[in-house]
Amino acid sequence: MVDSRQSLVESRESPVGSRQPSTGSRLSAATAHQPLDDYQYVGFEDRFRGSDEDIRAKLRAYLPVFTGASGVLDVGSGRGEFLALLQAEGVRATGVDANHEMVAVARERGLEVAESDALEHLESMPDGSLGGLMAAQVVEHLEPAYLMRLLATAFHKLRPNAPIVIETINPACWLAFFSSYLRDFTHVRPMHPETLQYLLQASGFGGVIIRYSAPVPDHMKMQPINLPAETLAAADPASRALVDTARVANANAAILNNLLFSYLDYAAIGHRS
Question: For a disulfide at 115, which of 1, 103, 166, 267, Cβ 3.0-4.6 Å?
Fold first, then answer.
């Protein structure tokens, strides 16, 4: 069971899951140092985050948020998986990434990506110039002060009603925290869903919701005790005691499943008020 759970997380972890595309090295001002050079981190991601097709399949769920948008910025755009999806939908979008190797791959695919620190790039843009902002698997790499500046700056650069999507690992799911999060030593700190929701609201964004993704498959969760019908219907003390024990065990398993094996990722989604 442990091995199968490990395989699940490795298949979607950087990961950044999801594509797990953004890393500390991609946001150079976000961390105190860069423990791996660009080339080494690309290899690290390729080993744990899943195939290009898997990443696109996961990110495709966010496309409806950007329907009709123009001038979308993908922060920590990596190899350009989400940019390519937007382009295919006719949405004009650009990316920014500090990882030279990732930027080179994205540009080879014909995508427009700036090689720069994310915050510096965002600050250089005119206010109200963006029609949307995406940041998948980025915030867990950021120091709090940097993140707050990034959100505040994004608010001013986005046009009214423009969407913002911030996806990250779900630390409220213990499987995600102890595998996906801890595996990547460039992560700075986990971000609880309620905390990220509040930070977006405090930065001025409205209608902020939390959307969970990458559910842990049922076969990898704690399984309920299913007693035979004759035992459930029996009236003898031994059978009744067994039924009561199974009921308590199943209730406890449900609680643990909610803590341990719920959703590996989540996104805070809002709009510029």
Answer: 103
